[in-house]
Structure formats: C-alpha cells, structure tokens
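Try this one yourself first.
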C-alpha cells in the first residue's frame, strides 16, 4: 500500500487500544457462552458455547434449520438469546451502553449473502453509507476512502456511478465487500460468501478475501455450505447439529468425527480432508493462472 493510500485509511479502529493491538492470537474476539436460543416454541440452540480467536477464520457449517444463520444474528446483536451471553471485544451484547454498542459495531463489517445493496443508490453511495453515518468524516475523505476500497476489491472509479441493477453477481459481491471493509474493521462476518458464483469466480473471490484478510489482519466468521471455500479459507470449523455444537477444530479434525451430519457434509471429500491436501489446495490458488495478480485485479467483471 502506498503512503497516499495509508494516509487515506480511516482513523485507528474505533475503541481499539494498544493492549488489544499487542494481544496474542489466542485472544478471543467473540465469546458465546452457554447460549440457548428459542424462536416461537422451537429451540434452535441449547447451551451452545464457542470462541472466535483473534486473527483466525472460523467457518460455521450446519444443515438446514441447524441455527447457523441464527448464530450469526446473535453475534451481530440482531437477536438476543433466551439464556446465556454473547460478547464481542469484551462487550456483552444486550448488556452494554448504546454508545459502547455503536463503537463495537463500527469494529466489524458484514457481507450478506445476496449483497444487500440499496437498489436506489449508486455503488459509491452504497460503499460510503457507513462513513456518512459517522457524520464527522469530511466529504473529500469519504471520496478518497471509497475509491481506495473500490481498488482493493478489483473495481474501477468508473464503477462508482453504476446502480446495483447494472452489476454482475460477482461485482455485487465486491461492492458489498468494499462496504463491509470501509471502516477498516478488525472483524468480518461472511454469510455464504461464494453463493451464486460459478466455480472460477468463487476461487477468485476467496483469493481476494484471503489477500484482504492478510493485508488488513482480519478475524473472520464465515457461514458456508461450500467445501471448497472451507478448504481455501477456514482455520477452524464449527459444526452445528441437533441444536448444539457437535464439533469444532481444524477441518481435518472435524471431518473425522462420526457424527451423521458431518459425515454427510463431507461425503465424497473424505480423502481430501487432510492437512497435506488442504495446504496443496491453498498453494494452487496462490500459484495458479492468477498468480502474481494483486487483490485489486484478481477478479474479472
């Protein structure tokens, strides 16, 4: 990143201090403790606990109705558990001051499954929304930051004036990712990041996510049903079934578990779920036909 780009970055991550900057990777960014979630009369989670560690990519998998999207909503503070607690950056959601919650939310970004762009707004306006909500960012700096993020996700300044209806599926994903990253968050949530993309576009997109994760030192929580995306990105995998967390660990560790959902999920991939294959797969993504490309140009329109 150039000196000009560095100067254009947003201020220090809101609420972050030097102690957090120097924390070890094992520090928990998210702590879900003995959570029970009820929707109507249905129990979605029962006594579920897990931690997301600083700097890791934690992938959440589960069958239909297993509560993986509900768990994501709990982590985003969009839903409250019937029992238990969810804490992010040391703040317990649902039990902290509104000003503290606003600061915590400014430290994470979200890529929704379908992008969730506002159809009446241009690409520029969609990406700029989180900055404008802060109300104290000068207009010229907003322009500079939006153009910087466009470049980081492989789009051009000319794309800034387009409406979502003019974009391909891959471009919608990139615009949504740029918006999720506009405040330089420490934490990124991904809801089915490769859904709707063809295999080639999917590989390019996970390469982009991995490049940005490394560049921005991101912690990532990802909900996915795609095994190739797990191979490409996941440091650990959390499997949900039967209203609980049935396994958590590296992909190779989780894939060995005899639990029925896990065996079904990895059916046909058993021989690939080992550390050697995973490392070779990731190397092939970095060294394939797109090797040498930057995060700003590895995607095609």
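Now uncover the answer:
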């Amino acid at each position: 990143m150039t000196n000009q780009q560095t100067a254009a970055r947003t201020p220090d991550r809101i609420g972050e201090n030097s102690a957090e900057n120097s924390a070890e990777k094992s520090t928990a960014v998210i702590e879900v403790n003995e959570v029970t979630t009820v929707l109507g009369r249905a129990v979605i989670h029962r006594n579920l606990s897990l931690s997301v560690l600083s700097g890791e990519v934690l992938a959440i998998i589960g069958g239909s109705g297993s509560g993986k999207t509900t768990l994501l909503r709990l982590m985003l503070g969009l839903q409250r558990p019937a029992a238990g607690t969810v804490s992010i950056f040391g703040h317990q959601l649902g039990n902290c001051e509104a000003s503290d919650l606003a600061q915590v939310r400014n430290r994470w970004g979200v890529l929704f499954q379908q992008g969730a762009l506002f159809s009446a707004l241009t690409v520029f306006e969609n990406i700029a929304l989180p900055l404008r909500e802060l109300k104290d960012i000068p207009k010229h700096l907003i322009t500079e930051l939006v153009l910087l993020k466009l470049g980081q996700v492989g789009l051009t300044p000319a794309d800034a004036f387009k409406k979502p209806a003019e974009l391909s599926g891959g471009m919608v994903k990139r615009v949504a990712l740029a918006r999720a990253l506009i405040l330089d968050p420490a934490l990124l949530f991904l809801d089915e990041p490769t859904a709707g993309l063809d295999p080639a576009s999917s590989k390019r997109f996970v390469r982009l996510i991995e490049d940005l994760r490394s560049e921005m030192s991101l912690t990532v929580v990802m909900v996915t049903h795609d095994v190739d995306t797990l191979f490409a990105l996941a440091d650990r995998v959390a499997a949900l079934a039967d209203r609980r967390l049935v396994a958590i660990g590296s992909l190779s560790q989780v894939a060995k578990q005899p639990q029925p959902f896990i065996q079904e999920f990895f059916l046909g991939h058993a021989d690939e779920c080992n550390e050697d294959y995973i490392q070779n797969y990731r190397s092939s993504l970095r060294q394939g036909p797109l090797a040498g490309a930057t995060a700003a140009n590895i995607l095609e329109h």
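Discussion: The radius of gyration is 19 Å. The mean pLDDT is 84.
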